[in-house]
Amino acid sequence: MASFYRMEPSTNHTPHTNHTTAEMPFGTRTDLSQLSGTTEAVRREVSRVLVGQHDLVELLLVALLADGHVLLEGVPGVAKTLTAKLLARTLSVPFGRIQFTPDLMPSDVLGTSVYVPARGSFEFRQGPIFSSVVLIDEINRAPAKTQSALFEVMEERHITHDGHTHHLGEPFMVLATQNPVEQEGTYRLPEAQLDRFLFKVLVPYPTEAEEILILQGHHAGAGGLPLNAVQAVVTPEQLHALRRQVRQQHVEPRLFEYVAKLVGLTRTHKSLHLGASPRASIALLNGAKALAALRGRDFVTPEDIQHLAAPVLRHRIQLTPERELEGLGPDDVVRQLLQQVEVPR
Amino acid sequence: MLPSSRRFTYPLGSLATGLLLVQLAVAAPAPVQPQAPSPPAVAAVQQAPAPASVRNFGADELQRLQADDDLHYQEAPPPTNPVSRWWQNLMRRLFDSLPEGSGAVVWRVLIYGVAAVALVLIVMQLLNLRLSDWLRGRGRNIAVPYATEADDVHEQTLPQRLQQAEAQGQWRLATRLGYLLVLKALTDRGLINWTPDKTNHHYQAELQTNAARLVPAFASLTRQFEYVWYGELELEAAPYEQVRTTRQAFLTHLQNRRAA
Q1: Domain covering A26-245: architecture
Q2: Which residues form the domain of B184?
Q3: Is the ipTM of this complex over 0.90?
Q4: What percent of chain A has pLDDT over 90?
Q5: What fold characterizes domain A249-345?
Q6: Residue among B151, B199, B233 whose CB faces A306 most closely
Q7: pLDDT at A19 over 90
Q8: Is A302 at the interface with chain B, CB within 8 A?
Q9: Residue numbers in B near A15 (CB within 8 A)
Q10: A101, A196, A107, A181: which is closest to A142 by C-alpha?
Q11: What is the domain count for chain B?
């Protein structure tokens, strides 16, 4: 099925410059050619099926390089699931999918012990979470009991069952989709779980031009390219190397202060009754490092931090009821925060 | 067919009408008889004259009556200002609707109390104080002030500090100060609007709107600055010369543009 979508603009959307090696003013210091080549290949494969949505794909690539989980939110039918499946297909790693339903049990996700008569003992049967890329579809349709089963595995990359710890392999990435909580039959995710997502990306409706392209593709190809036309272009070893490179990005010391001030302000802002945790600061820093690498730089700029502030913070902050009634949204508050902190220069 | 209750209405009605007629006949007035005229009252006064005494009101009583609002019949003209008129009407309606007696005092106290609380809340809102914080004894929220360090482009000593950095061979610092000088020059000419929260790319976007021909040179300067400052690149004298040349060319171009 052909699909589309155009991601919402960033709260601080400015034209960014993709610095290639040739544009480096003082010669090459870090070779980012493998990273740019690999990520370009992923983009190419995804765009074989997906129409538009360049910003969404960029954020997914950033999360992939920063070793983080992503929550995609949008109304039904805007191809959240398809985007997640496409990204997973470009990686040659085991892929698992779990459809969250109101009656789902934690053991349906994590696994359970089964009695084996031949051995006369119990054996742990791994659940679908034991994959490298796990697509959790409609994550907010399961109640809090099932959600809490994900706490340990998302943060520590292992689960504890019957007193035994079962480690997950590398890489491990959760791509979850959800409908807005106002939709019928959905639950609000626990704060502790939301905090474990690196980004929350809002997926809006496509633009008219994109929708026309979708229709044309559908009409011409009876649904467009099948998913299996997308090839895996990244191996786990390659991904591991790219992530190591991202971790070594340069960060000017005052940018740490910038991140800390920005996140710290969420804890005292009068419109918020829940601020962001230190995990948010780390997420913002890691994301900025990955974004800088994706844009061809071996150092972070304030621009990278501002660009990712909304996807990192919007699901980690909670507005006071009065502000919510006034129609203020998390992105509005993030915009205010960015205006209150001086850009280090 | 009529309901049973109405079937007995007519005999009872006829009986009542009969009784009324009888009562009217009994109570009919008797014919009027002519009476003899009574003697005039003036004659009685003439027979028993009494000295007329002048009654004076006491000064205290007069003062009390003059102070009584209920005895003031001349009303002040309504104010011409519409806001004052609205306020006067509101007050009159509010207090006229109060019950009389001792309840009125309670209502007045209640109204003044509500007004006082509203005033306090408005003042707290203006001072950015939250009632819950105030009750719990917490301080007010104060926005983090901008750090007014050397990165304020309006700082007057930027050229001197740049010269000093160049003289001391601090090429990285000199690159930074030189870039701030460029931002100052652009701000002074109204080509960008400098605020502390904007990134270099915001300024590039502003320049695209205000002076698109300057964008490539500014982008080059920005790249140099970002690689040296954010990229923590330790420059030598020769690469710095490249930075200095680019900057000087840009500033000269900016000056010539102004002259033209």
Answers
A1: 3-Layer(aba) Sandwich (3.40)
A2: 158-259
A3: no
A4: 46
A5: Helicase, Ruva Protein; domain 3 (1.10.8)
A6: B199
A7: no
A8: yes
A9: 201, 204-205, 208
A10: A101
A11: 2
